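Researcher: Go.
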Amino acid sequence: MMKYQGAKIESVKARIILDSRGEPTIEVEIQVLGMKVSASVPSGTSVGKYEAPVVEPAKAVLIINKLGKQIVKREFASQQIFDDWLKDHSSYANVTLPLSIVFSRVFETLPRPRNKKLPKLMVLVFEGGTHGDSSLKLQEIMVLARTVRQGKKLYTELKKALKDKGIDTDIGLEGGFSPNNISDKQALEILTKVFSKKVRLCLDFGGSYFKGSNTEQEKFTDDFPVFSIEDPFGEDDWQSWQDFYKRFGKKCLLVGDDLVATNLSRLRKALRMKLINAVIVKPNQIGNISDTLEFVKMAKKNKLKIIVSHRSGETNDPFIADLALAVSADFVKFGGLARGERIAKYNRLLEI
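Model: Structure:
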């Protein structure tokens, strides 16, 4: 778009749009030098209790439009100054984040690494728990792929194998297959048979929302080629996290999502207690771009792997693909290769 050169924002307008679940969310449009640019924000289904609060969308629109009258009268010399101003005026993530994203988009404030590092893909293939009407208790079962092309190939091969076995191929909220006639163990066995033992599995237990037993985390990690395991326990179950890390921290990635909630203070505690070696990054958990970048900076300083992730209630905005490249993320989670709002992120990676 443009580098910031003292250009003033001329107008700010918020509106309600629908996310991928048909639920209301926020889109913001700003105008600078006659150019209109928009951004929209997602929301989660399994929401951690340490995420930044949100307000009812209709109220968020009123707040943003009210703030907009102040924004057009001010100059903001940087993303940090703009985000600090937003935090002084609202604590709601669905108020501050769309404004923060659209500001970064207009003035190109995201970092620009010299060498573009393309992240590997954690492609969603099965989903259960709170994400679908499924017999699966695991929230997400993903396979690791190097490229979008490889990910699409794996997804298509699995769909054919499931059909051949008479297993449901209906999809859940995030584009993964959501069968109601197999168990988690059977799903993992199918993946290892279809793709051979070389497949690398990424599991998200959903922490506080997981309805299985606490022995399944260890059993699945022992019995299958698990590359990463996300939120095996609830966000306040520090002891279980610590015990699990001592046993499996060198075998696979132990990923904090709800545990750290893209929050620096939560991350500091997890690092101090040695609970994780990878983190999920979700801007709407913290509510602005500047704090998201500070979170990534601290995680990298401590040699954690970075995984930029979508939410269950997504929009077609591909911002997280740009964010992943800007921070040189190691991995991305964009969902299954089946729904338009997920494909938008994969397409953005291909475009870049």
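Model: The first strand starts at residue 9 and ends at 18.
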